[in-house]
Amino acid sequence: MKIDRFRRLLDVTVAEAVGTKILPPRSALAAIDSTGLEAHHTSHYFVKRRAKGGRSWQKTTYRRFPKLAVVCACRSHFILSAVTIRGPSLDITHLERAAVDAVFRHRFGTLLADAGYDAEWAHHLLRLELSVRSIIPPLIGRQTTKLPTGYYRRLMRTRFAKKTYGQRWQVETVYSMIKRRQGDSLSAHTVHSQNRVMRLMVIAHNIMILRHTYRVFYRAPDTPSTEQEERLLISRSAIESSERPTAVVGHYLGNPRLQLHAGGLCLPRRSISVRISVLLTFVLLT
């Protein structure tokens, strides 16, 4: 999945989550973390290192692997933003991209992160520029009895919200859900393909949550009729045509009056499979 389509689809799924009460207009807690995934074909790179106390240099081999970083809402496990990177790498390097993207997509009050994101500039970014309360344990660097020099890192040492920080494990649950349902290895060979697969895994995770909500609250039939299935088959000619995306979607769903409202797609209260298909088709055609 290309990055522009991924962002549009993530926008639509988050908007749907707010509309169906999965997400509130403003979430209280969000968490960020990254995880590594297995790849059948991994690249290697070499680094010269010198052992502690030694004089000679030796070559050390590291294996690169696909790495996924997400920001999720703690209460619903809904993913708000995702960044695909290569590991091994420091977590702090992708904080700005992930946090800014998440805040502009959905507002939240507090962001929880582990010690891998500990830095004074990270607190400045979140608190002063994004108006988000940051809770990050100040564990980077040598641990001494002296307080950290930075204002916010010192605040984390003296007034750390331990009870609130306990909810950070919710992002670990998100990764567990993804790996349990979709697997923890990627079959793609190239870096570009692996990134696209990881983005697709993020979208699939959000759609699974939406699908469960539709099933619980709307009680609509899960399996569309044969006629509906035929309408959902978007032909190549329709995709390549110059028609407006909403007109194409409406035509294949038997509803030509389907329109855009306030920048988003107005989804009909129909079968679960129909609603999910409308969601995917809208992004693929725009």
Task: Please give a handful of descriptors for the protein shown.
44% helix, 21% strand, two-stranded parallel ribbon, Transposase_11, Transposase IS4-like domain-containing protein, single chain, five-stranded mixed sheet, globular, DNA binding, Nucleotidyltransferase, domain 5, alpha/beta, transposase activity, 286 residues, 11 helices
Point out poorly predicted stretches: 227-274
Quick one: biggest sheet? Answer: 5 strands, mixed
Q: What's the shape?
A: globular
Rg estimate, integer Å: 22 Å
The CATH architecture designation of the largest domain is: 2-Layer Sandwich
- Series of H and E elements: HEEEEEEHEHEHHHEHHHHEEH
CATH topology of the largest domain: Nucleotidyltransferase, domain 5
* The CATH top-level class label of the largest domain: Alpha Beta
Tell me how many strands there are: 11
- Report how far apart the termini are: 14 Å
Structural class: alpha/beta
What fraction, in percent, of the residue positions are helical?
40-55%
CATH superfamily label of the largest domain: Ribonuclease H-like superfamily/Ribonuclease H
Q: Give the count of structural domains.
A: 2
Identify the strand order in the major beta sheet: 6-5-1-7-8
Q: DSSP helix count?
A: 11
Average of per-residue pLDDT values: 77
Instruction: Say what oligomer this is.
Output: single chain
Percent strand: 15-25%
GO biological process, one term: DNA transposition
Organism: marine sediment metagenome
Protein name: Transposase IS4-like domain-containing protein
Pfam family, one: DDE_Tnp_1
